[in-house]
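Support case: user asked for a sample of complex input and structure output to validate their parser. Sending the pair below.
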Amino acid sequence: MWWRSASFILDQRNQDDAASSTKPETLSVSPPQTQSSYMAAAEPFNQNPNPNPKISAYYQTRAAHTGVVTKDWLAQAQAAVGRHPDDVPSPGYEVETSDSGKSFSVIHEFNNWRKQPDLAEAVAAIRALAAVIRASEATTMMELEIELKKASDSLKSWDTTSISLTAGCDLFMRYVTRTSALEYEDFNSAKSRLIERAEKFGEISCKARRIIAMLSQDFIFDGCTILVHGFSRVVLEVLKTAAQNKKLFRVFCTEGRPDRTGLRLSNELAKLDVPVKLLIDSAAAYSMDEVDMVFVGADGVVESGGIINMMGTYQIALVAHSMNKPVYVAAESYKFARLYPLDQKDMAPALRPIDFGVPIPSKVEVETSARDYTPPQYLTLLFTDLGVLTPSVVSDELIQLYL
Amino acid sequence: MEARRPTRAVIDPKVRHVGFFAPPANPLPGPNSTLLSGSPAGNSLSPVMIPPPRHPSDRSPAVPVPDTGLRRQGSDHVPVGSYNPSESLLSSSPAASSPSGRVGLADGEFSEESDGWYRYRRSGSGKYDLPLPDTTPEKALDYSAKSSAAPVLESKKPAHVSGKSGKAVVEEQNELQSSSKRPKEKTTKAERRALQEAQRAAKAAAKAEGNKSAAVSGGGPPSKPVKQPSIKKDAPPVSLSIAASDKKGSDRPPEKERKKDVPPPRMQFDDKSRVEKAKRRSVVHQTEARNRVELFRHLPQYEHGSQLPDLESKFFQLDPVHPAVYKVGLQYLAGDITGGNARCIAMLRAFKEAIEDYSTPPEKNLARDLTAKISSYVSFFTECRPLSISMGNAIRFVKSRIANLPLNLSESEAKAAVCSDIERFINEKIILADNVIVRHAVTKIRDGDVLLTYGSSCVVEMFLLYAHEMGKQFRVVVVDSRPKLEGQALLRRLVANGLSCTYSHINAISYIMHEVTRVFLGAASVLSNGTVYSRVGTASVAMVAHAFRVPVIICCEAYKFHERVQLDSICSNELGDPDAIAKVPGRMDVNYLNNWSNKENLQLLNLMYDATPSDYISMIITDYGMIPTTSVPVIVREYSREHLFI
């Protein structure tokens, strides 16, 4: 049992090496056309002979979000669609993956899936891995498993800063291979069982957002004020469902500097006729009095039950905690990661440049980390597709999944 | 008797006044014996109080198997009282034997062992039901059938019984016709003495109750059995303190149901009568320390240094204890083996050696006899030093492996199977687990970290050395405390390996904590509410670290996890030698406490462990990965079974 986690450490180390050697591309969190165009746009940037090591793929995800907010970016993105979106993966990976025979397709598959609107990156990865099984020409279970492992490794190393991608791949491996498939004597039936499970897992993951939205409805009451930080599609789905259910509530959106994700969310909510108020990020404590609950998404849910999310979540959770306001987290279960940060610095940092509008003297250091870790004691509940969980249950679920 | 234990657990705390309770000269036994003897049945002393003569190997078989069945039978029939001597006699004698067995196990221990024992018994009896023809209930029946004929068939019975469950009947046999028994049962000195005492008590009882004994008139044998049932009836009204012990009789059936969920209470060392009983049977004769702290009276405390020479001199006399076991026991006693893992491995290795040399006596079942042997070893260990929780879990494992041996195995196969299981336990649960923990832990340090550790934990040491080997740049602060100064040994090894270290005493913890970035601690056990049970002082370190917002990381193998919940360090703990804190080595001038034991109003407390609340702990690193304290129950639930049935 223990080896699982031990190998996990090793995997991570390898990934780190891989990450430092090659610059991964964008993440998928934005709508596909933007995504692909963005990648196309980002191509020159990544192919830079001396790529800026201070900018992580994580930032690029966020940049993609920003792209929606700024119209010109969108236009540019639109224009870029139809160019060659799929040659994005860096040659390094092509080389690395092609030696594994089949998995060369996995990145392509992944990118194809990502083009579907609103498909989370982890789900895209899950679909891609399922496709690996389907396309596999392996003749033994062992071979198949190794192939799958390679594919998932290459996916994971594709972007090491994305927690949900890593977690999704890990979970898929667990979920699919932990079946009793190995008991089948017939390889084909075993394989079809694996595919079946993979499909099922993909389906579950797809529905996750919907489930969470349904679960969270009981917590949104008429006349409540909800503080939202950052842009999360799950949170948006939750609020959308609440609006559709004719609940009366208003939303405070933080601005979400530097990528202004809050602006995007407020746009979406305005479309739904939900009363929205925009706050600058530093106004969290000022307006906390009026707030009834805090709703945030998560980049990853870690073993302690805490979350890793966009920078600023921690301080909002602290303020909410000190004012006894509940902090709710909406996160799909494929974001449950086998990480256990002890403090803020104890994570692989995801960096991004910050535009301050004025030139910053070179002597001035800028904190460019894009996310922070919120310890479990500041969270009230986690809405996941597994149910509404207290933070401590996360670890239980993870233990049961992985051990 | 199992029934009895849970009851005690429930009742004792109410009866016992902890803290502000002036220690009466003779709290329990006094009223107990006098009142009881005053009552018609009072002499019941004999069955209940006097442990049957004991021969470690024989003693236990009586307990695990026939125990439950017989007891039940006893409780069913006995309440009626005196009129069927033979029946009551039978029922009483197992009762008599069993508490002793129980006490033997519990005695001197503060921890798991009783649990393991208890558990085993439970599972064992249940298990036996299935495969073996002579299971408990059946045996009970068998017994009862025989019991009706008992007076007649006296001579035949002992032979039969001794084959199966030996001791249970032996005692009564002693009284009935010692002559018939003698040739069959080899008696040790202890046995003979116990027998004499039993007879004396019986006689006294008979004398006290002239009328009663007249009615019974059978002389020695009937009088004694009669009492047993009557105690049960009479006792409750008699006195509060007694009520505790009696009650078990009356509400046994429900207790039985419940017992499965209730962990067995440990022996409470402020319960004088039971301590006396336990003492009589113990191999190691220890003198109790004086001037004990009231709050900790329920824990065993002996004067150090007195037993060792005594035991050493007995090395060649104690045939029932295997030499390897004996050796390890002495090492525990002398403090040569310390540390949860080391003690556990030493114990398991000793067991292994003993099992290899073991041969099933004729007419005995290997599984049961071996279990009994192990139990007797365990009680020997317990006498040497209270067991640690890790040892309790390991014992549980060994016993369950023995109990689960397939019946069709030959003796040598069975022995080999058990030995390889033991070896595997050592490898997988301790050695490999340590490696995994080390590899997890190393991911949690960064270059430039300052790590603080307290005392000397072997996993933490392995981790520090491994991290150093990996080329991590960090500094270590070793915090230590009197009187053990275990940190110095650790410090020496770390420095020898080229780590840069700082050594400090716990008094300076709040000063040194400023610069620390991680605290790594070992643990004797992790309890299911997340409480970490560890070397005394750990809680202070964790608390200070928490106050300074320094993450506290506990490294603990999963086999040390226990399902018990503990809220303080009082209920279960171990008391060390008070002299150790009274004296300062190398400082002759610090002699203010030289004659402390003569001062009535001075009590020294040298606690060995403390309980760290889960709030102060950021993470527990186990062989199953890194978990928050809230997940300990999950590990316990999911994997404690695995410990037993690898």
